[in-house]
Specification:
With about 260 residues, this protein is α+β, with helices and mostly antiparallel strands. It has ten helices and seven strands. A seven-stranded mixed β-sheet has the order 2-4-3-1-5-6-7, sandwiched between helices. The chain is elongated, with a radius of gyration of 22 Å. The N and C termini lie far apart (about 50 Å). About 25% of the residues are buried.
Amino acid sequence: MDSFTLRDAFDIAIAALLLFYLYRIMKESGTLNIFFGVLSFIVVWVIASPLLEMKLIGTILDKFMSIGLLVIVVLFQDQIKRFLVELGDHKRWRFLRNLFHHSKSADSADNARKYVLPIVYACMNMSKTRTGALIVIEQTISLESYERSGDIIDALINSRLIENIFFKNSPLHDGAMIIAHDRIKSAGCILPVSHDTNVPRALGLRHRSALGISQATDAFAIVVSEETGHISVAHRGVLSTRLSTTELEHRLSKLILNE
């Protein structure tokens, strides 16, 4: 019998790490039951085929596995995207990114000053007047498919433009605004709605849409409540409510500077 080596321990550690990331992403997206179902199927397949050498059951499960992998890729393409983004965006790789993007740090700071304040100022004014708003800021994963669900604007980020789009009599105020590449790309966009049962019932469709897009992608979503005027943000499947404008500015600045 082969002895347990350091390579085996390293192999197990990598597999455990991948499963942990996959578990966390599926939990955030509300598909945790499916994760456990797939995991249980794989365990049965491993026990029946390689270990017990049950030929009939093993052959049937092998066929299901070959087809099932394709089905999983199709059904969970958003979660797979997020899984890969999580691996590439982990803090342990940040020093490598800094080596290649060190010269761009000053540009990132300029961008932060250039459009963080207009967004924060617009949210502050809309909070005072209780004007409902949903602003989504693109990160690594493209939001182009969601942009096409609304009206293309492609304008510079401006606080008055943001407020006018979400004005109650505006035809675009019910949808989401998408910001990408330092520009307002589109407005009136339709986003996926989260079905997370942990979301308080007092929160409306805007909050669930913000949480939904943060579960499907790595986007940063800002919500201004029409009922209370409270500011909330959703990022990586976590919804934070009742933020002050100072906290919003701090979070946006960290997001843009990749801190």
